[in-house]
Write the structure tokens for this entry.
Amino acid sequence: MLPTISAAMPFQMALDEILLQRMKADSLKPVLRFYFSAGPWLTVGYSEKNLPSVENGVPVCRRITGGGRVIHGNDLIFSFVAAKEHDESFHSVRLSYLKIHEAVKAGFEFLGERPRFYRCDENLPKGQDCFLFPIATDLGLNRKKIAGGAQKRSGKILLHQESIKIPSALEADQRAEALCRGIEQVFGVRLVRADLAPQMMEEAEKLSRERYERQL
């Protein structure tokens, strides 16, 4: 597990891409990191066309993953990078998404909350706003979607990005600690803290400027 970073979303997206590239090149152990958006940002899935630099006064950044639109600034985000061989569920987009959300659900439950999965048999409306239009296996609490994710797969490696709404009464570090417990319980692993190499930070800064800030 890597240190938590607060930074603008172009840098965060660039760092996730660097981690994905490193996993492909070096066959590392799975990597988990939590992060925050430095101020309001809107991220959109990689396939969205005609992307503006600013929308309703909020800067826009494209993600490397798919999915809908997500407003950041009041959420805790985590990214998870792993090889398909690290867990049987990782071979399937649907099963990996479900298992990761089982871990997120367990994290909420450690804090005394009782989220639920949206089901395939529900009449769920479709739309671009990720948190207004949940899909099956997203998590809801008090009739609102509270967690949603998207993935990028490249060869035998997957990157999962997850946004989790933070209740104002609960500190983000408590949420992150509970989510770590949920991940350890569901995946049967023990998370170990690690540091980011300065070179990776420099590479992410460069990639952020060249790709993720270019549209701004």
